Amino acid sequence: MSTVLSVPGDSVIPHIGDRDTEGIGMTDWAAGLETLAAANAHFRSVLAQVGDDQLEGPTPCPDWQVRDLMAHVAVGNRWASLLLAGAEPGPAMGQAQAVPRPDDRLAAFDADTAAQAEAFAGAEPTGTVHHFIGDVPAWQFLGMRTGDVLIHAWDLARATGADERLPESLVRAGLAMYGARAEQLAATGMFGRGAEGAPEPADDQQRLLHLTGRRP
């Protein structure tokens, strides 16, 4: 199974709040880097609980087993580092996908996330990243990565029976990224029907999951 990123869905995510401005302050950028680090740390905490006997289990992502979901996030982290170094998206994706699946999942995840963090830290917030959807500023790409990792942390927890509760600070960040674009998210088809037809959410986490087509 291919482990490509959900590019069409990523393209409509507002990032670092809901900025449509040309300039991003360094305070916003630093906060965005911290949020990505927190999302990766949470994903890691779930990843650490995955047993080898769970790798072929189903996930909330259609047609993906647990191993595919984990590979998707790993490929995304490696792909991000390459794009931030100026690579074109197609060759970079091929290079990221060509890395063999590791024996030590946590060590590989730590190495990939550290490389990604270093790449973002060295980037200019308004610098250009070549993406499948077209050129985007680095601050927008930062939000794409954060949203992808955050939502898939919940997917992995649901698939493996781990604690599904997301940290409140990350839920707030997720709502800031997704909330203003609910109709666009649903229109892409990458998030199911989005929040359309969902029951009244019991809390902010359910609201976030409904926006991304999940029904917890």
Architecture overview:
- This protein has 216 residues and is mainly α.
- It folds into 2 domains: 25-164, Four Helix Bundle (Hemerythrin (Met), subunit A), CATH 1.20.120; 166-216, no CATH class.
- 56% of the residues lie in helices and 4% in strands.
- It contains 9 helices and 2 strands.
- It is globular.
- Mean pLDDT is 83; it is low at 1-24.
Outline of the structure:
With 216 residues, the chain is mainly α. The chain is built from nine helices and two strands.
Whole-angstrom Rg: 16 Å
The CATH C-level class name of the largest domain? Mainly Alpha
Helix fraction by DSSP (H/I, runs of at least 4) = 55-70%
Q: What amount of the residues lies in strands?
A: under 5%
CATH H-level superfamily title of the largest domain: dinb family like domain
Spatial order of the strands forming the largest sheet: 1-2
Name the features:
216 residues, mainly alpha, Four Helix Bundle (Hemerythrin (Met), subunit A), 2 domains, two-stranded antiparallel ribbon, 56% helix, disordered N terminus
Secondary-structure map:
Blueprint: H1 7-10, H2 26-47, H3 66-84, H4 89-97, H5 105-121, E1 128-131, E2 134-137, H6 138-160, H7 168-178, H8 182-188, H9 204-211
Antiparallel strand pairs: 1-2
